[in-house]
Amino acid sequence: MRKRTLKRSSLRRALTAFWWLTLIFLYLPLAVVVLFSFNAANSAARLTGFSLRWYHQLLGNEQIIEAFGNTLILAICSSVIALAIGCLIGYGMYRHRHRKLGWLIVLIYLPIVLPDIVFGISEMAFFVQFHRLTGLLQPGLGTMVIAHVTFQIPFVALIVYSRFVGLDPSLFEAAKDLYATPLKRVIHFMLPTLKPALISAFFLSFTLSVDDFVISFFTAGPESATLPIYIWSAIKKGVTPEINAIATLMIGAVALAAMISLVFNRQRKV
Question: How far apart are CA 261 and CA 269, in angstroms?
């Protein structure tokens, strides 16, 4: 009995050590980026002191401000559109969940599992051909929004679908028995019930959009660079404390959106 207890204790310590090593492996590079964003030196090669001048310098860089604006517009617009379409798809999946819709599930999961570079090249080829034939959808923010919506919709649909599946089916029948019209059922029952899932889906879509580089790169126009594209272009000249400062701000924005999404996910499960 004592040997078994010692083995369990040793196993628990080993798993705890492995857990902390994994966290260090995952987050130490991010910590280094954040630390060197406050570097007082002109080079990111070594840390000589701490300063906020690189963050002040960002505010005076018009290219960065424009890239930040494009990133924000792209993330908000694509997330709102994906939320509306994905919510309808999620509800449709729930209503017809008893039918054999394996092909629909495959179509929903395909944008999630498809490599970004393949997805980005296919989107670029489509927009180029469409613009050549019709003169519409010239590469820019418009094509980027459409491209982002296409890979955000599956995430929204699955979150909304999982929320519907977790509800008691008798609630829908109860709403009908109380003579609620379809519009009233949506306003007074579905939307309040889906609120945590919708907010979580929005922030998840927002995070995916801000974080995306590959698809944005293939569908962007000459004047629609986002922060990831700007960082990729600037890093060719070497990593500077200014790039570290941009990366730090992006890490903070994505972490904040992810935390909000996690909070509403937990509320949805309660």
Answer: 13
Residue with structure tokens 């994906």?
82
Q: Where are the domains of the chain?
A: 62-269
Dist. CA 59–CA 65, nearest whole Å? 7
DSSP summary character for residue 169: T
CATH topology for the 62-269 domain: MetI-like fold (1.10.3720)
Tell me the pLDDT tens digit for each residue of 192-233: 778 888 888 898 898 889 888 889 988 888 778 888 888 888
Query: Residues 123, 125, 130, 135: what is their CA dihedral angle, to the nearest 10 degrees?
Result: 110
**Confidence (pTM):** 0.77
Distance CA 249, CA 68 (A): 11
| DSSP label of 52 | S
d(CA 170, CA 153): 28
- Nearest-angstrom CA–CA distance, 92 and 78: 21
Which residue do the tokens 């919708």 mark?
A: 198
User: In this structure, what token pair is assigned to residue 88?
Assistant: 């309808």
**C-alpha span between 268 and 166 (Å, rounded):** 10
Q: Are 160 and 201 in contact (CB under 8 A)?
A: yes
What is the C-alpha to C-alpha distance for residues 9 and 18, in angstroms, rounded to an integer? 14
